[in-house]
Design goal:
This protein is α/β, with parallel strands linked by helices and about 325 residues long. It has nine helices and 18 strands. Helix 5 runs antiparallel to helix 9.
Length: about 325
């Protein structure tokens, strides 16, 4: 595999953490997984290239166009800044035909650029996946299994807290909920929130699904990080907290009042592996390359969800900054 981008998610997040317990970057994940071998890395920053060269005996280049023709890669990981994703994918496909491309989220800030990326990949016959890490976590997969079996019953209502931008971070939880409950069917902007740079914003909104809805509320990252999801199902409450802790409280008969039900006082902790989330993505990508069932977010699915989030930001811009944080 080849990686484009040696920043935080590409290379840096886990470099000072134990390799046995923390796999938070693409480089560590694909170097650890037995089904992959890294053949090239690309980054325009000399400092990052130097650090990578000192750590690994893998060729590293300043640009995709610098990679020698004899170096071929079945998998390309795009972990460069969002505004470069489209050009990286198009440049790579003009020279090579990998078996899959795994791209960081969002595919692009502009929805037309994201669609163009997906079309380039479709025309080239190359599957495009988006690195929504929570989909690959065992705790999230267990919730998906319980939903499919009816162990967690529908309909549902949910509340999700996010910060640092709807596209940058809120999209993680929009994708998580769409993985569990199916595609987003509608969106309603509640309050406009504030702008986050030129491309993003922090609105409060509601996303509607076939059997439920979710309120998205923006928190203030400068105060503290807060990323949680609470799902009230027909037979209990599910909480996704602290970046990956999954807790289930089933509804049980009330011990005193006949005919009433309440939540079990002791939550069930569903095991997760979020300290190794990127390794879990590599596992799912290996399954996809083998033609087996996988949990990765496909590019077209990501775009469908992003269209609703983009609409919320567009409505936020047109409606003005109605909610001051």
């Amino acid at each position: 595999m080849a990686i484009v981008g040696l920043g935080n998610i590409g290379f840096l997040y886990d470099r000072h953490l134990p390799a046995a317990t923390h796999v938070l970057t693409h480089v560590r994940a694909f170097r650890q997984h037995p089904d992959f071998r890294m053949v090239a890395a690309i980054d325009p920053a000399p400092v990052l290239r130097g650090e990578f060269e000192r750590a690994f005996e893998v060729p590293v280049y300043a640009s995709v166009t610098d990679i020698p023709a004899e170096i071929q890669s079945d998998v390309v990981v795009v972990a460069s800044p969002t505004e470069t994703h489209a050009s990286v994918v198009e440049t790579f496909l003009a020279r090579r035909r990998p078996r899959a491309i795994l791209c960081e989220k969002p595919l692009a800030y502009r929805i037309d650029a994201a669609r163009s990326m997906a079309e380039h990949c479709r025309s080239a016959g190359v599957p495009l996946y988006v690195n929504y890490i929570r989909r690959a976590d065992p705790g999230v997969l267990e919730v998906k299994s319980r939903l499919e079996s009816g162990h967690i019953a529908l309909p549902f209502k949910a509340v999700a807290w996010y910060s640092k931008g709807l596209l940058h971070n809120g999209a993680h939880f929009a994708d998580l909920l769409s993985y569990w409950f199916g595609p987003v069917l509608d969106m309603k902007l509640i309050t406009a929130g504030r702008r986050i740079g030129e491309q993003d914003a922090e609105p409060d909104l509601r996303l509607d699904f076939a059997q439920g809805s979710a309120m998205f509320c923006a928190a203030r990252e400068e105060d503290f990080s807060h990323y949680t999801v609470e799902v009230v199902a027909a037979n209990g409450r599910l909480r996704y907290e602290q970046g990956g802790e999954v807790l289930w409280q089933a509804a049980v008969p009330h011990p005193i009042l006949p005919g009433y039900r309440r939540l079990n006082a002791t939550p069930e902790a569903i095991p997760n592996d979020m300290n190794r989330y990127q390794y879990r993505i590599a596992e799912q990508l290996s399954l996809a390359l083998q033609g087996r069932k996988h949990a990765l977010c496909e590019g077209t699915w990501s775009i469908a969800t992003q269209e609703w989030l983009t609409k919320a930001i567009t409505d936020q811009t047109q409606g003005g900054n109605a909610c001051k944080h």
